[in-house]
Amino acid sequence: MALNKLTNPIMKELRDILSPGGLRTSPEDLTAYGYDAYILEGRPDAVALPDSTDQVARVMKLADIHRIPVYPRGAGSNLSGAAVARAGGIVLCLTHMDRILKIDKDNRVADIEPGVVVADLQKAVEEVRLFYPPDPGSQSVATMGGAVMMNAGGMRGVKYGVTHDYLLGMEVVLPTGEVMETGSRMAKNVAGYDLTHLICGSEGTLAVATRITVRLLPKPEARHTLQAFYPVLDDASRTVAAIISAGIVPCTLELMDRTLIRALEDWFHLGIPTEAEAVLLIEVDGEQAAVDLQAPMLEAFCRDHGAHQVQVAGSAAEREQIWAGRRSAFGALARIRPTCIIEDATVPVSLLPDAVQKIQEIAGKYHLQIGIMAHAGDGNLHPTILVDERDRKEMERMERAFEEIVAYTMSVGGVLSGEHGIGSAKRRFLQMQVGSRALEIMRGIKQVLDPKGILNPGSFLDEEA
Fold it and tell me: Model pTM?
């Protein structure tokens, strides 16, 4: 079904719906909101920044009437091209709806608007001794609305899971402009189809979240953080598999290879040994007694499996420095080459060593520089390909390498994405994982909720590659 462009009368209606300054149409704004953290770019006809559910509903109703494409967006930090205006229309940016509405300490629940930054929510709940575990790498800018729609994970996924594990309910606006409540504030709720978790991870294709309810945990009493450096990358990846196999569940278990180590040291001068082939960043949390028991076990585990240096964070400041480095890894790599493409292959943890070796083989085969970082405790690999998108031949090699990584991932029972989503980047591979019938059902669900196809057209459900 063909979609329409914005006309001057529709622009006037949008301006009347939104608060002063809520509609942006300058060339600079249209360019700025025309891309996310992936390499694809688009160009909207307008950017709408609503500040209430009513404004979102009225924008959607107007778009529905005139068949205008709408692209919901948070901070644009997603890495799959899921928030790019591929057909013009309206970018609906929810960052002005950024209030923490309520933190219910007694029931361990928080109500928030979609524009709340993940790190700000974490800080607010920790002030009352509570804990929101999901922590995407872009937590300092990523919004909760984006995290919900992409079902974001992060470094603590190995122990605590991902966004949908904490999502209780939502207020959403449907493509028709209707407002609907899903879920509840209860930890247990089995009334009918689980629409909350259907919409979670839907990448902005089914509805726009305007209020989000999440469950919280008690803040862990203690934490212990260490980093172990390895002269052999394979020893680091085998340590991960051995730790998980032994029944130890760290809060966080991260792997970075030599490319990452050198990039971080070159940028931040942290004093980390650049001769190392790999580093594991490990954190355990929980009751003090349990942490005191696990900490020396993990240190011994690393040394026994080949680590030549183990550094323990002796203070909160040292712990924060370790994690600040890991969170800056993508930025550090991006300084090396003009284009930095971070992938999201996920394999069984027991096969992590084989997967790391395979990626290295593929890098050599196609003469590419690929840095490897991973949420290693759950097998979520982020091979990061460093290229120059202006070099057509290099980009062709990158595409072939990417296809081989996908093929290998599928062959060992892995999945296309552990947390970044499918977006435009991987839509051509989706049927390979889910099958034609499942994809047909997904498109049927989309048709029920969005019969005119105005919400995020060109997404992972689009039939064209």
Answer: 0.93
Query: At residue 257, what are phi and psi to the nearest 5 degrees?
Result: -95, -175
Tokens 């979240």 belong to which residue?
A: 209
Residue (of 460, 465, 464, 457) closest to 1 by Cα position: 457
Strand partners, 221: none
Torsion of CA 57, 60, 62, 68, to 10 degrees: 170
Q: What is the full DSSP assignment across 143-192?
A: BHHHHHHHT--BTTHHHH--GGGTEEEEEEE-TTS-EEEEE-SSS---SS
Q: Do domains 8-95 and 100-218 have the same CATH topology?
A: no
Cβ-based neighbours of 34, under 8 Å, separated by 6 or more? 41, 42, 43, 44, 84, 85
> Tokens 């172990």 sit at which residue?
228
Domain 222-411 has CATH 3.40.462.40: yes
Q: Provide the Cα torsion 354, 295, 282, 314; round to 10°.
A: -150
Question: For 250-263, b where at least 16 C-beta lie within 10 A, e where not — what string?
Answer: bbbbbbbbbbbbbb
Q: Rounded CA gap, 66 and 61, in Å? A: 9
Q: By percentage, how much of the chain surpasses pLDDT 70?
A: 99
Q: Which of 149, 69, 45, 73 is nearest to 452 (CA)?
A: 69
> Which secondary-structure segment (H or E) carries 92?
strand 90-93
Q: Which CATH architecture has domain 100-218?
A: 2-Layer Sandwich (3.30)
**pLDDT, tens digit (0-9, with 9 covering 90-100), for 185-214:** 998 899 999 999 999 999 999 999 999 999
- Ordered by start, the domain boundaries in the chain are 8-95, 100-218, 222-411
Query: How much of the chain is in helix, strand and coil states, percent to nearest 5?
Result: 40, 20, 40
Classify domain 8-95 by CATH number: 3.30.43.10
Kindly report the number of other CB atoms within 10 A of residue 243's CB atom. 24
Nearest to 408 by CA among 354, 336, 465: 354
- pLDDT level of residue 463 (50, 70, 90 thresholds): low
d(CA 380, CA 19): 42
SS3 310: strand
**CA distance linking residue 321 with residue 324, whole number of Å:** 5
